[in-house]
Amino acid sequence: MKSLCACLGSRFCETPFPFSHIDQSILSIAEQKLAELRGRFDGFVTVFLDDWRGYRFIYDVEASSCCTHGCSKCPLVRLLNFEQDGGIFSAALRCASDDDKKIFGPRKYLNWRSFAEYQDCYSNFLIQKCFTRKEINDELNLVRAMRVLYANTGSLRQLETKFKRGVISKALKRAKPKQKRFIRAYLVQNPDFFAE
User: Fold this and answer.
1) Range of the domain at 180
2) What is the reported pLDDT for 7?
3) 69 contacts: CB under 8 Å, gap ≥ 6
4) 130 phi, psi to nearest 5 deg
5) What is the pLDDT of residue 147?
6) Distance between CA atoms of 110 and 104, rounded to whole angstroms?
7) pLDDT of the residue at 16
8) DSSP string, 136-175
9) In this structure, is residue 8 part of a structural domain?
């Protein structure tokens, strides 16, 4: 049986792509901030850390704790109201532009997503905005570096693996043939993609 590299051809199977893990100083800052936030709000389901438009949290919260009385009375919005957006790391909520909403869905905030919605953000971006090998590799590097910092149930590493598998599965179902080749080639060159 031929390897995937043999099937794809050598131009798709060069050396592995450069990849940076989340810097330990950023991780430390994020963990301290998350501990502070968790002490003031108990509605988190999952909290992710990624490096898209700067290091930031993605919040998955219990539906009953938010969106009941509008944004002005929402406990998460009130909790994060004074967080500064900017710098190398931010815990602030980031408003979605009209263009963002076309790709990532209608939510007001880019980084307030359920687990499945957050997966969809990555798979939608891969399918709608990434057409070259470099674009796809850059986006998959972001997925690879993403970390689950908190979950109210389950193993953090298992959730990360589940998340990454979902992104890849959703993207491959909708990708054009060339995009599929690039995604599969990336996975061949990065066999630890799901295991990190």
Assistant:
1) 21-189
2) 34
3) none
4) -115, 115
5) 94
6) 8
7) 37
8) HHHHHHHHHH-EEEEESSS-HHHHHHHHHHHHHHHHHHH-
9) no
> In this structure, which amino acid lies at residue 135?
E
Does any domain span residue 16? Answer: no
∠ CA 80-48-70, rounded to 5°: 35
In a domain, 157, yes or no: yes
Structural domain includes residue 127: yes
Split into its structural domains, the chain has a count of 1
Give the whole-angstrom CA distance, residue 180 versus residue 171: 8
Select from 190, 196, 194, 181 the least CA-distant residue to 12: 181
> Residue 49 in 3-state DSSP?
strand
Q: What is the CA radius of gyration of the chain?
A: 18
Q: Is 50 left (phi over 0), alpha (psi -120 to 50) or beta?
A: beta
- Give per-10-residue mean pLDDT for the chain (196 aa): 33 38 87 95 94 90 66 83 84 93 92 94 97 97 94 93 97 98 97 84
Q: What is the pLDDT of residue 81?
A: 87
